[in-house]
TrEMBL record:
Coiled coil start-end: 26-74, 107-198, 546-591
The organism of origin for this protein: Podiceps cristatus
Domain Protein phosphatase 1 regulatory subunit 21 N-terminal per the UniProt entry, residue ranges: 3-100
Compartments in which it is found: Early endosome
Chain segments carrying region Disordered: 603-622
GO MF terms held by the record: RNA binding
SMART domains named in the record: KLRAQ
Signal peptide start and end residues: none
Main location: other
Pfam families linked to this entry: KLRAQ, PPP1R21_C, PPP1R21_helical
InterPro entries: PPP1R21 (IPR040024), PPP1R21_C (IPR049372), PPP1R21_N (IPR019343), PPP1R21_six_helix (IPR019348)
Name listed for the protein in its UniProt record: Protein phosphatase 1 regulatory subunit 21
């Protein structure tokens, strides 16, 4: 971005310089245009003056001509005078003519100069105007470019300033984060030191305890650890069974390819170089064909041996070289097939030599036969190597001392190398057979049966090559697994597991499985979902009703507390009324009759009853409802006493008492109805 800014600035300087130069050039052209205008005006003025002089001269010529005519008329009268005057006029006329001729020539020259100057001025003016327009257009374009660059520079500068501000904010944020990270790092380092110190102390304590409390550890000695029962590695067994399944599939492909190869080779011997259908083949080829016909008896057992080995590897077994008994059977089947190859090898070599001696065999075909001659020897040698190494792997299951453990890795590595050599040999055989089949097709006596048989042999060789290549790749890819898990023993041990330990381990595994099954008890029958849902609804409804009743009880207790407060208030009012009543009684004793005195005494008894009620309520605070009723009675009695004191006669007092009790009855009835409705509502809930 900075380089772009520098480039734009340099371009801006160049454009500014060009604009200044063009402006200076335009100013100079304008000055030249002004000067040309001035010269044009001068020429115009001169032209005007010359025109005026020409007009004067023309008038003067006319006058002279008139005078000449007059003089000629007068000359008739006076010839002498005429002759003299004519002579004089001739001289004057010649002078005037010369002068006039000069004026005319000068006028013509001036006219030409004026015309040329006018044309040149117009042409120059047009050129200057055109150039001025071009320069103005260029100046406008340059100005537009300058304006656009200025705006662009302004936007770029603003953007850079914004980026700078953002980067500064980001740098500040990163600095703060870095500080926080440093602080956290220091804290973590401190915690790490503390943990290391704590773990070191705990390690020392553990080592001390181990040294003091564990005097004998059998896992440290391989000899003692070999006596421990190893763990059952189920994952190892599953992996090994998977590998055995893949190997079985590859061996089946190999067996099929070998059967096809031997069968089609037998057909080839029957038809080339001599066709058995038309002539008798040689005794050598007859014997060779007879042996090839027996190939299935030696090839099929290879597949069966690998199948038995695969079936012996299960999850419930311990598969190691010491317990792989079926590997010995596979080795024996491989030895049987090797004997078959050794038996047919001389006949196969002699058959190739017989083909070379045939009159139909060309030099190229003879060379291919000799190459196949060498390839067949190599093929038999490869099978001998494979049989040797497989028989070595089968030794631990029959004779554990026959193969040392240190040689296991070497045996597996040599098997992988032999398989790759086997694959290379088959590729050479496939190549040479292909060339041989091509050459045999060019023989004049080649039949369609020979061509078909060659194609079948070639396809079987290709299938055999592909199958062996798969086996070699499979073995090389899993070589690490074979060498790392040849056999396993107790935890931490390095000794081989023996068959007795494996059998003991399997027995313990069965016991553990039985124990785990015994621990696994069936679950009790659970409550059905619909029933549980219904019970939940009932429980929720009962809980809600209980909560509602608890709220009602709480509200009732609050109301009772308020009524207690009102009771105390009205008790105070009753005491005041009692005092007032006593004062009134004292006043009435002096003025009222005995009947009124008795009534006053009855009235005085009522406050005593109120006091007794008060004492009973104070003695039983645990019965709030009862105390509330008594307080209401006290209030009623006090009110009655007050009303009786105010009433002057008996009828008015009775009316007041009746009205008061009727109002109280109506109020209590309404309270009773409200309580009944609430009780019905609670009962419904």
């Amino acid at each position: 971005l900075a380089s772009l800014i520098f480039q734009l600035r340099a371009q801006n300087q160049v454009l500014k310089k060009g604009v200044v130069d063009e402006q200076a050039n335009s100013a100079s052209l304008k000055e030249q245009l002004k000067m040309k205008d001035q010269s044009l005006r001068k020429l115009q003025q001169e032209m005007d003056s010359l025109t005026f002089r020409n007009q004067q001269l023309a008038k003067r010529v006319e006058l002279l001509q008139d005078e000449l005519a007059l003089t000629e008329a007068r000359g008739k009268k006076n010839k002498r005078s005429a002759e003299s005057s004519s002579q004089l006029s001739q001289e004057q006329k010649s002078v005037f003519n010369e002068d006039l001729q000069k004026k005319i020539e000068e006028n013509e020259r001036l006219h030409n100069l004026f015309f040329e100057a006018d044309e040149q001025h117009k042409r120059l003016e047009a050129e200057l105007r055109t150039r001025l327009d071009v320069l103005e257009t260029d100046a406008a374009q340059h100005q537009a470019v300058v304006d656009s660059l200025t705006r662009k520079y302004t936007d770029t500068i603003e953007k850079l300033q914004n980026d700078k501000a953002k980067l500064e904010i980001k740098s500040q944020t990163l600095e703060r984060e870095a500080k926080d990270c440093r602080l956290r790092t220091e804290e973590c380092q401190q915690q790490l030191k503390n943990l290391q110190a704590a773990l070191g102390s705990r390690l020392e304590e553990s080592l001390c305890i181990i040294n003091e409390k564990v005097p004998f550890n059998d896992t440290r000695s391989n000899r003692y650890n070999a006596l421990n029962v190893p763990l059952h590695n189920r994952r190892y067994q599953l992996k090994l069974r998977d590998l055995a399944g893949q190997a079985l599939a590859f061996v089946q492909e190999l067996v099929t390819a070998l059967l096809n190869f031997h069968t089609y080779t037998e057909q080839k011997v029957q038809i080339f170089p001599i066709d058995s259908a038309t002539d008798t083949i040689s005794p050598l080829n007859q014997k060779f064909s007879q042996y090839l016909h027996e190939n299935a008896a030696y090839v099929r057992p290879l597949e069966e041996g690998m199948l038995h080995l695969f079936e012996s590897i299960t999850e419930e077994t311990v598969t190691v070289l010491e317990t792989a008994v079926k590997l010995k059977a596979f080795s024996e089947h491989l030895a049987s097939y090797l004997c078959f190859l050794r038996k047919i090898l001389p006949y196969q070599l002699k058959s190739l030599e017989e083909e070379c001696e045939s009159s139909l065999c060309t030099a190229a075909l003879r060379a291919r036969n000799m190459e196949l001659h060498r390839d067949m020897k190599r093929l038999t040698a490869v099978f001998e190597k494979l049989h040797t190494y497989v028989s070595l792997l089968a030794l631990p299951s029959t004779k554990p001392e026959g193969l040392l453990r240190t040689n296991y890795n070497l045996v597996f590595t040599n098997i992988a190398t032999s398989l790759h050599g086997f694959h290379d040999t088959l590729k050479d055989i496939s190549k040479h057979y292909s060339q041989k089949a091509t050459l045999e097709q060019d023989i004049p006596t080649a039949t369609q049966k020979l061509v078909t048989t060659n194609d079948c042999i070639l396809s079987s060789v290709v299938a055999l090559t592909n199958g062996v290549g798969k086996i070699a790749s499979f073995f090389s890819n899993n070589l690490d697994h074979f060498t790392a898990s040849l056999s396993y023993g107790p935890k931490g041990g390095t000794e081989f597991i023996n068959p007795l330990s494996a059998e003991c381990m399997l027995q313990y595994k069965k016991k553990a499985v039985a124990y785990m099954k015994s621990l696994k008890k069936p679950c009790a029958n659970s409550v059905p979902y619909e029933e549980a849902l219904a019970n939940r609804r009932v429980l929720l409804s009962s809980t809600e009703s209980r909560e509602g009743l608890a709220q009602q009880v709480q509200q009732s207790l609050e109301k009772i507390a308020k009524l207690e407060q009102e009771k105390e208030h009205w008790m105070l009012e009753a005491q005041l009324a009692k005092i007032k009543l006593e004062k009134e009684n004292q006043k009435l004793k002096n003025s009222v009759s005995g009947h009124l005195t008795e009534t006053i005494q009855d009235r005085s008894v009522l406050p005593n009853v109120a006091e007794q009620k008060k004492e009973t309520t104070e003695k039983s605070p645990r019965e709030p409802i009862k105390s509330t009723i008594f307080s209401l009675l006290n209030i009623n009695i006090c009110l009655l006493n007050f009303l009786l004191c105010q009433a002057p006669d008996v009828e008015s007092r009775e009316e007041l008492i009746k009205n008061h009790y009727m109002a109280r009855i109506a109020e209590l009835t309404s309270h009773l109805q409200l309580a009944d409705s609430k009780s019905v509502h609670f009962h419904a809930e």
